[in-house]
Amino acid sequence: MSDSIIHKATTRGHANHGWLNSMHTFSFANYHNPERMHFGALRVLNDDTVEAGMGFGTHPHDNMEIISIPLEGDLEHKDSMGNVSVIRHGDIQVMSAGTGIFHSEYNKNKDSRVKFLQIWVFPNRKDVTPRYDQITLTLADRHNKLQQILSPDADDAGVWIHQNAWFQLGKFDKGVTAEYKIKSKENGVYAFILSGEVTINGQALATRDGFGIWNTDQLSILAESDAEFLLMEVPMNY
């Protein structure tokens, strides 16, 4: 018998700093909910909007795998390893903070906002050498099918992290179905609906809803409308 938890979009934490409007699925900064600390190794899922010309000043991280997925607009990244890059919709960025890094993220556009997902995953190795990577995904590879965008294997599709985790993106037309087989029996999957309506293992979900499921070996997915969604398979015990 599977176990599950649903987090409706309207139940998320909210912080509006003027330049930054952030929705927190899990406890973060001033939003603290003891029942919403993490889902297994998935620690942070922030749904961020950054206003034109604004951004996050230089700040530190350590011993965390940090994934950024732009949904709209461009975000400029700079870090203490000397990387300077721009991530756009269609890209995915990963940082292994390890022993410690500093970085900043800015919306350099003066006339448009940036929307992106900021995701933190607990690593399975502490104090690794910090690293940075980003790739551009082929958007057609998620049309009516699941596109792997992250794994534990540097030679596999997508970016890789120091954790037994796999992420998939799907952009489905109404009525399309898919099966997703859990890759490790120790893992669960947290689904986040970017747009539209999706049913997963019988649970109806709408835009920005989150759904965690574990103690199951596969997911049955049905797009009830045109929809886009992210699946994050992570260890439940880490």
What's the structural blueprint in terms of helices and strands?
Blueprint: E1 3-7, E2 13-16, E3 20-24, E4 42-50, E5 55-61, E6 65-72, E7 74-79, E8 84-88, E9 91-96, E10 101-106, E11 114-121, E12 131-136, E13 146-151, E14 159-160, E15 166-172, E16 177-181, E17 187-195, E18 198-200, E19 203-205, E20 210-214, E21 218-223, E22 227-235
Parallel strand pairs: 13-14
Antiparallel strand pairs: 1-20, 2-3, 3-4, 4-11, 5-10, 6-9, 6-11, 7-8, 7-10, 9-12, 13-15, 15-22, 16-21, 17-20, 17-22, 18-19, 18-21
What is the total tally of β strands? Answer: 22
What is the helix tally?
0
Q: Structural class, from helix and strand content?
A: mainly beta
Distance between the termini: 22 Å
Query: How many structural domains in the coordinates?
Result: 2
**Sheet with the most strands?**
7 strands, mixed
Helix content: under 10%
Overall pLDDT level:
96
What fold name goes in the CATH topology slot of the largest domain? Answer: Jelly Rolls
**Rough shape?**
globular
The sequence of SSEs as H and E is EEEEEEEEEEEEEEEEEEEEEE
Per CATH, the superfamily of the largest domain is Jelly Rolls
Q: Gyration radius, to the nearest Å?
A: 17 Å
Low-confidence stretches: none
What percentage of amino acids are in beta strands? over 45%
CATH class of the largest domain: Mainly Beta
Describe it for me?
This protein has 238 residues and is mostly beta strands. The protein folds into 2 domains: 125 residues, Sandwich (Jelly Rolls); 97 residues, Sandwich (Jelly Rolls). It is built from no helices and 22 strands. It has a 7-stranded mixed beta sheet with strand order 1-20-17-22-15-13-14, with no helix packed on it. A 7-stranded antiparallel beta sheet has the order 2-3-4-11-6-9-12, with no helix packed on it. A 4-stranded antiparallel beta sheet has the order 5-10-7-8, with no helix packed on it. β2 and β3 form a beta hairpin. The chain is globular and about 45 Å long.
